[in-house]
Write a structure and sequence with these properties.
- With about 180 residues, the protein is of the alpha+beta class.
- The protein has 2 domains: about 1-30; about 30-175, no CATH class.
- About 25% of the residues lie in helices and about 30% in strands.
- Strands 1, 2, 3, 4, 5, 6, 7 and 8 form an 8-stranded mixed beta sheet that branches.
- A hairpin with a 2-residue loop joins strand 2 and strand 3 (about 45-55).
- The longest helix has 28 residues, at about 1-30.
Length: about 180
C-alpha cells in the first residue's frame, strides 16, 4: 500500500513539474513586439506614443499611428516617466520594429491591420521603447539608456500630427 501511494505521488509530482516546465518554455518563447518611438503626447488619464510616416496615398502627406499608455492609477496625473521602466538592452537582441523601415512600402490599411493584430497573436505584448539620450534622465543611470512602456494600439489618422509642448521640457521630464 505504501509503495503504491509513493508511486502515485511520484507520478503526480512528475506531471506537475513537466507541465510547469512546458508552460514556462511556452511563455519564454513568446517574443514581444518592441516599437521604437520618440514622440509622445498627453491624453485623458493616459499618454499616447505615436509615429508618422510618409503616406503612400497622394491625397495625404503623412499617416500617423497611435499607441495608448494608460495610467496605472486613473485618479490623478502621473508623469510618463513614472509609468515606464528603464532598461539596459542591446537592440539587436529584441524584436525591434523601427516604423519607417519596417512599414516601408506598405499601404495605410496594411499597416493599420498589422498593428491591430500584433497584440492578438499568441499573447504577445506591444512595448514602446525609446532612447533617453536626448533627455536629462540619462544622467540618473547612464547604463540604462532605454525606457519601455506596455501599450496598446490606439488607431491611426491620415494626417501629420504633433502635440504642442507649452512646458518647454521633454515630456519624460514632466511632473518634477
Amino acid at each position: 500500500m505504501k509503495t503504491q501511494l509513493n508511486i502515485v505521488l511520484l507520478l503526480i509530482i512528475t506531471t506537475l513539474c513537466n507541465s510547469n516546465y512546458a508552460q514556462n518554455k511556452v511563455n519564454n518563447d513568446i517574443e514581444n513586439y518592441y516599437i521604437y518611438i520618440s514622440s509622445f503626447g498627453p491624453e485623458l488619464m493616459a499618454y499616447r506614443a505615436y509615429f508618422s510616416i510618409d503616406s503612400t496615398d497622394d491625397d495625404f502627406y503623412k499617416e500617423t499611428y497611435f499607441f495608448r499608455i494608460n495610467y496605472t492609477e486613473p485618479v490623478d496625473f502621473q508623469p510618463l516617466y513614472s509609468l515606464g521602466r528603464r532598461i539596459a538592452v542591446d537592440l539587436d537582441t529584441i524584436n525591434l520594429i523601427k516604423p519607417k523601415e519596417y512599414f516601408k512600402g506598405k499601404s495605410y490599411c496594411e499597416i493599420h491591420k498589422e498593428l491591430s493584430l500584433m497584440t492578438s497573436r499568441n499573447g504577445k505584448r506591444l512595448i514602446i521603447i525609446t532612447d533617453l539620450s536626448n533627455t536629462d534622465r540619462l544622467k540618473e543611470d547612464p547604463d540604462k539608456k532605454y525606457m519601455i512602456w506596455y501599450a496598446s494600439y490606439d488607431g491611426s489618422i491620415m494626417a501629420d500630427f504633433v502635440w504642442t509642448n507649452m512646458r518647454g521640457k521633454h515630456i519624460l521630464e514632466w511632473g518634477e
